[in-house]
Design a protein that fits this description.
Elements: E1 3-11, H1 14-33, E2 36-41, H2 46-52, H3 58-65, E3 69-74, H4 89-99, E4 104-110, H5 123-126, E5 130-136, E6 144-152, E7 155-161, H6 166-181, E8 186-191, H7 197-210, E9 217-222, H8 223-232, E10 239-242, H9 244-255, E11 267-269, E12 275-277, H10 296-308, H11 313-328, H12 346-358, H13 360-370
The structure holds 3-isopropylmalic acid (IPM) and magnesium ion (MG).
Length: 371
């Protein structure tokens, strides 16, 4: 029996619906296994801009720092799209990642047997896919200076900078090797070393770190090729480690191997202090507030929290199994439903997963109702 404080930052759009689903699931886990979860809510993103004039208020950061882990929904929406850089919802997300030193973003991509039909790719291509994208999260193109717009000699310009310090690359590549050691022992380091200087340094460092992990195989892959290989033969990958923006792009692409962006959880870890868990999807303003969003990515993010921050692997397994059960039983939110198939609401999906967690018999009930 443990007692944990979780900071919850729902954010904007479907962020609210999916985090409230994940909180429900955590409560169910608390009931079933006798843990105490205390939830403290904070503002981030567009809502924080509206209420506090900044996308990451100090109170929010304070709540996160004094908690054991952070659960985040999503930020952003058309309402704030024309705001200047410092008043954009996304800025709040980047700031919290930086402030809490969450440099290692883990994005697991797992094939679900029952979702074969939901992926646009052929079954033989996605069968058995089990890969982990380790995205560097606090450096690279997202944070390099200079960044901004200017007018020089009457000409309008914009600049972003891809900058990495050696230590930043070392720690993320090392994390990837350590994770690979517990998996299939293969690291694919993705870069653009044929063009970018930062990538050439990345490659050198990866080679250096590899010396300390003789049991793990290292391969290098150019990012354009990696984008293609992820669709051509995703089974070849185990751990992919890469620069912030490459990781952002490749993880959205990789989500389609599972059938939907709505399925992918993530964990953002630091070497000290609480970690943050969030679905990789955005705030989906087009379906926000309609009880349609797929809560599974947020729920699986909560499972990652239990496993990685609290060491509760049995509890994490229980959530993952419950998700597999409802999927196997045929439950589908709109994003993963087939043509003509009834899509369930966010609440229905959450309730059935909860039922599966609380009561093993519920699973067989779900099986008969949705078969
Ligand atoms: C993600 C998102 C964010 C990112 C956005 C919302 C800033 O796309 O977590 O992948 O680019 O990192
Ligand atoms: Mg993204």
């Amino acid at each position: 029996m443990g007692s944990y404080q979780i900071a919850v930052l729902p954010g904007d759009g479907i962020g609210k619906e999916v985090t409230s689903g994940a909180v429900e699931i955590l409560k169910a886990i608390g009931t079933r296994f006798g843990h105490q979860f205390a939830f403290k809510y904070g503002l981030i993103g567009g809502e924080a801009i509206d209420q506090k004039g900044t996308p990451l208020p100090d109170e929010t950061l304070a709540i996160c720092r004094e908690s054991d882990a952070v659960l985040l929904g999503a930020v952003g929406g058309p309402k704030w799209d024309r705001n200047p850089a410092h008043l954009r919802p996304e800025k709040g997300l980047l700031q919290i990642r930086k402030e809490m030193n969450l440099f290692a973003n883990l994005r697991p991509v797992k094939f679900y047997d029952s979702l074969t039909e939901s992926s646009p790719l052929k079954e033989e291509v996605i069968q058995g896919v089990d890969l982990l994208i380790v995205r560097e999260l606090t450096g690279g193109l997202y944070f390099g200076k200079p960044s901004g717009r200017m007018v020089e000699n009457g000409e309008e310009k914009a600049v972003d900078t891809l900058l990495y310090k050696k230590e930043e690359i070392k720690r993320i590549v090392k994390a990837a090797f350590e994770l690979a050691r517990k998996r299939k022992k293969k690291v694919t380091s993705v870069d653009k070393a044929n063009v970018l200087e930062s990538s050439r340094m990345w490659r050198e460092i990866a080679e250096e770190i590899a010396q300390d992990f003789p049991d793990v195989t290292l391969e290098h892959m150019l990012v354009d090729n990696a984008a293609m290989q992820l669709i051509r033969s995703p089974q070849q990958f185990d751990v992919i480690v890469t620069e912030n923006m490459f990781g952002d792009i490749l993880s959205d692409e990789a989500s389609m191997l599972t059938g939907s962006l709505g399925m992918l959880p993530s964990a953002s870890l630091s070497t000290s202090g609480p970690s943050l868990y969030e679905p990789i999807h955005g705030s989906a303003p087009d379906i926000a507030g309609q009880n349609k969003a797929n809560p599974i990515a947020a729920i699986l993010s909560a499972a990652m929290m239990l496993r990685l921050s609290f060491g509760l692997s049995k509890e994490a397994d229980t959530i993952e199994k419950a998700v597999q059960h409802v999927l196997a039983a045929g439950l589908r939110t709109a994003d993963i439903a087939q043509k003509g198939q009834r899509a369930v609401s966010t609440d229905e999906m959450v309730n059935e997963i909860k039922a599966a967690i609380l009561d093993n018999e519920a699973i067989s009930h779900i099986m008969t109702v949705y078969a």
